[in-house]
## 1
Amino acid sequence: SAPGPGPQRIPFAGLPDAYVVTVPNSIQSIAATDDGEVWATTKGGLLVRSSGVGHELVAVLEETVSGDEVIVPPPVILKSGYVVAASAILSSKQCEDYGHIRWFNTKDGKVEKRDLIEAPAFPFSVTSDGLFIGTVVEYKWDKSVGRTECYKGQPQSFQLRAYNTGGVVWARNLDRPAGPPTLAADEKRAWYSDGNRTLVCVDLNNSGKAAWTLELGPVGKVKLSNPARDNENRLYMNGATFLAAVDGDKGTLEWEVETPSHDALVGEPIIDAGGRVVVSGAEVGSNLGYRKYAIYAYNREGALAYSWLHSNEQIFTVEKAPLGLTAATDGTLIALTPEGQLFLISEQGELLNQFEGMQLIWPVLLSDGHVVVSVGKEQLVWSLMLTHGLADSGWPRQRGSNRLDGKAL
């Protein structure tokens, strides 16, 4: 369809040097190519593309969206020049869910491939040769009831599946949903959390068979985060009460440290420009719940480098505590709260600046220092907050990089 209004250079909520682009629907996720082209998914199944700072909205791709189809996970951008988007088709008549994996050429937005899979698409990782790896959840529906009742169905099975354009390549049965895998730089292996306390390494050259497993954290109810990977294949992951470092090649524990007393780690760790592991958390403010958002930075030996706290007006549960974290080349950390506050924090743990009114969409940091955020649900904003791009640390943000492909170099 025709692009929306062109960008407007306007002040917005105190954001410096802001360009605003309006899109047709509420934004759900943002990704970007290495040269700064921005792609976003919206509510209702649209995939929109903008050519960069100060340029027009290039395309709104909706020709492949029909009926009740909704793009579910964020788009994944391949270095080969394709954007991969997964979607679910929710059938109100049959109470069945199907999904599409679609490839878009980044030059003209043309749909290259459209493949039907058996179940809704969840966040996935993609190798450079087009192997999609992620968890699939299958449900057993009662087809005698209407669409609303369908969503009360209980999951029947979980699988970690790998797809290519020809269909399923391999599948592993799971006891519970697994996080999207973290891919090795050579793409021969991948690591994922099994949704409990086990880290699993699979061999991508051997039908996804487990190379090794490692249990982390205290015995009991533990939910590991997705692993972050540095440039030497060391993995970092956390539970609520600990942070661990693992040799990703050997599958051996290097160290495990407990959180500060009564505090909790949540979300997923990232690695900053100095090689420190940064993870968000919450500090207990009373026996009723948490009062402060927290950020903890640990060095490579597991020692606490700094902690940063932000008081919240209301008590919140630990499930609502994760902050969106992104690390810049100059050591600055970008943190987004569930309330839409955006903080710039120095590598010493000091607050540099803060902005209000953001949507809870993980921000993208471009190489020229522009931070792309979502505001007003239907607006993308480019703001020149920094002078540097993403840290070259191996895992400077969730899913590794702006491409969201699960493999950062």
## 2
Amino acid sequence: MVLVYAVYTLSHGSASAVSIVLLSEFLPMLFGPFIGVLADRLPRKPTFVLSICIQGVLLFGIGLTLHLHQLWLVYAGALLSAVATVASRTAGAGYILQFVPMDERKDATALQQVVISSMMLLGPPLGTAIYMAVQGQGALAVAGGLFLLAVILNIWVKAQKTPVSDAESHSFWYDLRTGLKYARNHWVMRFILSTGVLVGCSAGILNVLEIFLVTKFLHLPKTWLSVLLFVQGGGMLSVTPLLNRLTVPMKRLLPWSLIWCGIGMGLMISVRLWMVTLLGYLVFSVGNVAINLAVGTLMKTEVEESYQGRMSSLFTTAYGVTTGVFMVLTGRLQPILGVRFLIAAGSCIILISGALLLGFTIRYLKHSDSNLNLPQNSVGRDVDPLP
């Protein structure tokens, strides 16, 4: 949020500038598959700790460049920080499994979602307050300090030795090809990756247009963006325990979550009233939590531990590349088509795609119910229940 505020101010409200800084954060996700291989071959705790340490240092560096009023320096810092972000998320996927047994992984995913929702609930108002008090440099320094505090806390954590994916006997490229083959042949992973593409579509549109939804659609001050994000975080935090109690299979919950997100996006721009937009954010937040819970649970329970890094990075890449493409398109099209049209288009894409995925999921589960004892191939995937 601080970077968005800073770039919005430096560029005098340019949608293209906002989309570029957001794109620079997602561009390194193109290299996710390669980072995922390294995460599965290297000890996960040291990789995770080093990555978040680099993120903290880079935030300090970005803050120091703001007084130069050079946007390209901000873009470069955001790009390098994003590389470290991909590495920390990829290593963290397997790192968490060292502490959580199989039968508790759904609850662990819900707890992780509570932490994320709390961050979204408290982060926007605190970030806005700090930004208004000390401006961009001070706010980025605080953020960098929090990352370094996370480094200290994780150093104290006692972790088991990381199982690696036969790194001593297989080459880097062999592990990369094996991971891609695993994802291609595992129908749950194909389902998850398709979801990542669709979520990236909505994220790319909203990442760019959120601030313009406030300033140009609702005609409110830009600081009201923190109110919308506060409502979104509060909604996510409140519904997470309820969704975790659902007995609906995660494979069925996932497409319904996409449909719910599409409905929320549509509500955001249905009427030019801030209360209706808030309601849209609440509905969208419910779908967002359900997606995170379903994807996280399926990744932790359906994917073998030795493939966690590679599969997590592939999902990140599918999400990030789509987000980047839609951010660029949105930044270019916003002055021509307007905020309302673009968000409505994103809503339609998510709704139609979610309905199609729901139909495919029902068909897959119907066939898999009649083939309960599915054989395993050489990379440990489930044979597709459909011919």
## 3
Amino acid sequence: MDRETVSALLSDFYRNKYVPYEYDFSLMSKHALSRIYERYVSILRLEESPQAPLPLFPRLPEEECNRAYGSIYTPQFIARFFARYLREQMPPLAYKRIQTADPACGSGIFLRTLLELQCDPTQDGVTTELIQTAFGNVLGLDIDENACQATRLSLALLYLVLTHRLPETLDVFSAESIKYYQEHPKLKGTYDAVIANPPFISLDTQTLAMRERVSQFMGEYASGRIDMYLAFLHIGLEMLKPGGYGLFVLPHSFLLGRNASGMRKLISETSWIRCLADLSAIRVFPDSGSYIVLLIFQKKPDTGQKAPPATIIKCQDLVGRALQDAVEGRRIETNFYSIYDIEQDTFGEGEWLVLPPTESRLKSKFERLPVIDDFLHVRQGFVSGADGVFIVPAKQIPPGEEAIFVPYLRDRDMKLYTVPNETSHYFFYPYIGETKVEEDRLRDEFPQTWAYLSSHRRKLEARRSLKRYNRTWWEPMWPRPPKNMMRPKIISPHLVLIPRFSLDREGKYAISHSPLLYPKETGAEDDLLRFFVAVLNSTPCYWHIATHSHVYRGGYVMLEPKTLKKT
């Protein structure tokens, strides 16, 4: 293209015939840049093609929403809180020269915000040499090349504003962080700060190669369904030098989850928790189901100094003011948030349950009481692996074959204290009395049900756990024997906003995934069940359950048997 055409195309970015003003991109904030990255740039992927593109017209990227990248935009107030917290922890000159890494840099908002405070031209001692040193001391990694381009653009624009020229180079690399760290052993123990909002990629979303790499890298420090963020947390801990700070955005499940227990133990043994902000009551990421905490830890220095207290922030609202008060060292309790200190030995326990002083006293009273597990069995309802096949409307039950179907109570139909008189759905339950129905009997005595199951055979055989647990193709994965489910019991929805425990006195209903409770000893069972359904629905008891449970989208609490046992 000729020079005039190129000039006209570039001018269109600044002047538009449809609006009476010019665009001034020098005023674009990192906040706006990050939002643009999140909405548009992060979904552009160049698809590989065996056909070489024409050099004059390179192929355009395709739009793709790839959950395996786990990209979530970080709000600016979190980036600024981390940067200001670091500034308050060290002398000004040391702060301006710290070595910082972000192994999941995204749009670069953490590095950009930190460099803005380090190189603030209104502060004394900020020279061109210091600016060059500060920019040379940052490392950004991201598996997404588009994210790296956004980070380079953001940092380059800041450098241009500060020095009136573009940087010669920036250490921002498109690489898978675990692999990059393993290929660069010199990174271990060299950084003063590692800041990250790591991708929250669950096991189900990870590729097979990613699962294997994460599992091998984590080793003994994670178990079960290992979320990707744990690997980034491990990388950050290893990259820190003694006295260095790790500043991470993590899911609330990190505090309680069994799969994170190894990392919690490692961090408590090698580091001090300096600040933990529980923001799980706030929708920080509106488009995500993740509820978060902000974790700041300091790798224990070699000087043998006394362990400092940990600052805890429990926030219900006004999160900006709460973080501001914490940075300025205030300890306060309001209707919207509370800030207080606790000792480091609190984090030596299996779960990191941190409570305000008033709630801690209530927790201490609970700990002196017996637990539900002393009186009741706590089980889980059936898990079929194919609810769409095994749960059917009542009108679809074949006439004369009702014996192998039981009433199914959906979570949404569960009421407080009592169960409904009838239900619209039934569950295929291969038991008659206490005897399990074998395949020959099912085929001979219940031919219509057998024909129905056979029509869905391909779907039932596709269940992943079928071979692992040696199940036949036509049966539910874990139907639960009648003595454990079809009996008088207390039931509850799996996800709740308020307590909704109810008493199924006749043992009429089957439930799926949700918890169920029944007495360990015979005799006066009805009285015991009525007593405990009242206890479980009480405000103090539900507070205890909620504080020990995972928080999910919309503020829902997931009731798990392991949590109820300890209530």
